[in-house]
Amino acid sequence: MTQAQASGKVWLDMDQEALDRAYDQTFWAPNQDMTSARRSAAAAEAFARLPHERIRYGSTPIESYDFYSCGKAGAPIVAFIHGGAWRSGDASIFAHLAEPFLANGAHVAVLDFTNIDPVDGHLEIMVAQVRAGVAQVVRNAAAHGGDGRVFVMGHSSGAHLASCVLVADWRAHGVADKPLAGALLMSGMYELEPVRRSKRSLYVKFTDALVEDLSAMRHIARIHCPVVVAHGDQESPEFMRQARDFADALKAAGKLADFLVVKGTNHFEMLESFHNPYGFVGRAAQALVRGG
Question: Rounded to an integer, what distance in angstroms lies between the CA atom of residue 91 and that of residue 81?
C-alpha cells in the first residue's frame, strides 16, 4: 500500500469522494437545468430552420453526421463533436452551434456516434466511430464544397473524443498524414488515469491499454495542427487541471494556438460562449478558422 492509499488519497490530494465530485460537472453547475433548457430550445429551432444533409460514414444509422453548408464553394469545414459524459447526446441537439460558422463562411459537420452504454462501456468503439467520421469529412471535403481545411472542435467528453482524433493513425483511415488545419477543445479530459479512478469507471471499461491509447496527453508528438484549449473558471478542479496540463504540454511542443480561461463560466456555460461569435470561446473559434 502506498502512502497516498494509506491516507485515503486516490488521486493527487483527493479522496474518493472528492475525485468522484471532480468528474461530475453537475456538482459544480447548479444552473445546469437552465443551460440545458436554453440549449435544447436553440437547437430545436436551428435544426428545423437550417438546411442540412444527413450523411452516413459507418455501417449503423448512428454513424452519420449532419452537414450544414454555408452555401459557398471553397470554404473551410468545422467538424463538431458533442459531449454528454460519453453517455448522452446526439447531433440534433447541438444544431445551433453551426450557425455562427455558417454566417462567417464555413461549413459544419455535427457528428453522431454511439453513446457508451449501448456498447457496454467500450470507449474505444466511440473513439473509432468519431475518427472514422472525421476521416470521411476529410476525404469528402471537396465534394462538400470544402477548401481542404478541416477543423475539429469538441466540448467535455466530446473534447476528449476530439483529442483522440488529433492523435489518430490517419493512414489506417485512408487519409494522408496531417489532414487537420486546427482544433478547439473545451473542458475536456486528456489523461484518463484519474478518470479511471473516479466513479466513471462504473460505466466505462477502463484497462491499462485503453488509458494508454486514449490519453492524448501521452501522444503529443502525434498532433500536427494548432490547438486552442479552453475551460471555465467555475468548472471542477480536475477539469481545470486537465486543460491546464494539456495546454502546457502543447505549448512546450509548439502546438498551442491559445489557452483560454473563461471567467465566471461553468462547464455547461462554455457551450454558450462557443455559440456566441463575440464570446471568448466563440471569438477564438472564428479566429482559428479564419487564420487556419
Answer: 8
Q: Note the pTM of the prediction, 2 decimals.
A: 0.96
Q: How many CA atoms lie within 13 A of 120 on its CB side?
A: 0
Domain boundaries, the chain: 38-253+278-291
CA dihedral sign, ordered 25, 31, 36, 38: negative
Q: Give how far Cα 179 sits from Cα of 57, 77, 140, 241, Å.
A: 17, 12, 12, 29
Phi and psi torsions of 143, nearest 5°: -65, -30
pLDDT tens for 23-65 read 999 999 999 999 999 999 999 999 999 999 999 999 999 999 9
Q: Please state the φ and ψ torsions of residue 184, each to the nearest 5 degrees.
A: -130, 120
What is the per-residue pLDDT across 145-174, written as a single tens digit (0 to 9) for each? Answer: 999 999 999 999 999 999 999 999 999 999
45 and 96 Cβ atoms separated by less than 8 Å: yes
Q: Which residues contact 18 (CB under 8 A, 6 or more apart)?
A: none
Evaluate whether the domain defined by 38-253+278-291 bears CATH number 3.40.50.1820: yes
Q: What are the two backbone dihedrals, phi and then psi, of residue 175, each rounded to the nearest 5 degrees?
A: -120, 140
Give the angle 159-238-222 at the CA atoms, nearest 5°: 40
Largest pairwise CA distance in the chain: 62
Cell numbers linked to 213 = 491509447
Residues 6+ apart with CB under 8 A from 128: none
- Evaluated on CA atoms 273, 278, 284, 289, the torsion sign reads positive
119: DSSP letter: G
Per the listing, cell 488515469 goes with: 193
